[in-house]
Amino acid sequence: MIVDCHFHIDETMLTLEKMIEGMDQNQVAKTALIAPMNETMFEKDSTIQHRIQNLFRSRILHVPPIGFPIYDGLVRDGLFNLYGQSYKIFPKPNNNLVARNKGTVLPFHFFL
To answer: Which residues contact 40 (CB under 8 A, 6 or more apart)?
Structure first.
């Protein structure tokens, strides 16, 4: 059984139906939902934004000496600054969205 242990739910980017469809296509049985940590930053169908996001994520995960300074340069005063826009970081994520979907997928509550 494949379990995705980390998924920030944000239906403005990906509906639950599409998420479950993708899980089925990739034989993922369950996922742990985590509340959004910031305002939506990406348009649903923006390939370039998703590629940039993947590049940042890979640098943070696989090349921390490069990734962390990039991240630190983008975060200031509770805002994530990207693409010329500022997005609020939620210091206390709202877990109600996760709780409402309990049973649909494996729920996981994230608290700071």
So the answer is: 10, 12, 13, 87
Q: Which residues pair with 81 in a beta bridge?
A: 86
Is residue 31 within 8 Å of 83, Cβ to Cβ?
Answer: no
Q: What is the DSSP letter of 91?
A: S
Please choose, from the candidates 99, 98, 87, 102, the residue with its C-alpha nearest in 3D space to the C-alpha of residue 10.
Answer: 98
Low pLDDT (below 50) residues in the chain: 105-112
Q: Is 39 exposed, middle or buried (0-12, 13-18, 19+ CB in 10 A)?
A: middle
CB 59 within 8 A of CB 67: yes
Answer whether 0.70 is exceeded by the pTM.
Answer: no
Report d(CA 89, CA 14) in Å as an integer.
Answer: 19
Which residue's entry shows tokens 């490069």?
66
Phi, psi (degrees; rounded to nearest 5) at 33? -85, 140
